Inverse folding.
């Protein structure tokens, strides 16, 4: 083992990768893709990164499935819909929605969209106000709800709960 107190002494890349990965995972769950990217940003060799990530997966310290479940539930709690959650997961290297999110039916997503709409805009009748209807529809669509879910949520008024 090298004496790191000596000037010019470099840290072992394998140990540096392990330490950095563990520190990042201690803060929050990461996908393998995210963790690899963060380690590459620290200019660690690719073969070292792969070795460390394989070790971490074998020890179950790193799990894409667990990351996807935690992330999806967190985003759902923030009012995001299934399309946005899936897009966010794909940016993090996860290709499908976790089973807990897939198990939710359209009615559950519509209910969440209605709650979000109520908090943001109220549940006024939008039958005669096409401009406001379009504004609320854009908001819900950007949050990741499907066209069907948005239409159903916009049809709910305070007197028709």
């Amino acid at each position: 083992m090298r004496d790191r107190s000596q000037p010019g002494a470099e840290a072992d890349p394998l140990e540096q990768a392990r330490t950095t990965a563990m520190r990042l995972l201690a803060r929050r769950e990461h996908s393998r893709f995210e963790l690899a990217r963060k380690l590459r940003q620290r200019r660690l060799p690719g073969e070292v990164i792969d070795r460390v990530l394989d070790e971490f997966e074998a020890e179950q310290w790193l799990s894409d499935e667990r990351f996807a479940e935690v992330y999806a539930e967190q985003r759902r709690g923030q009012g995001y819909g299934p399309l946005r959650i899936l897009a966010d997961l794909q940016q993090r290297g996860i290709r499908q929605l976790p089973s807990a999110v897939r198990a939710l039916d359209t009615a559950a997503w519509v209910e969440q969209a209605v709650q979000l709409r109520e908090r943001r805009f109220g549940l006024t009748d939008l039958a005669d106000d096409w401009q406001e209807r379009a504004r609320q529809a854009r908001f819900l669509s950007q949050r990741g709800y499907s066209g069907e879910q948005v239409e159903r949520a916009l049809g709910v008024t305070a007197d028709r709960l």
About this structure: The chain has a mean pLDDT of 91. The first helix runs from residue 13 to 27. The chain has three domains: 13-62, 64-104, 105-161.
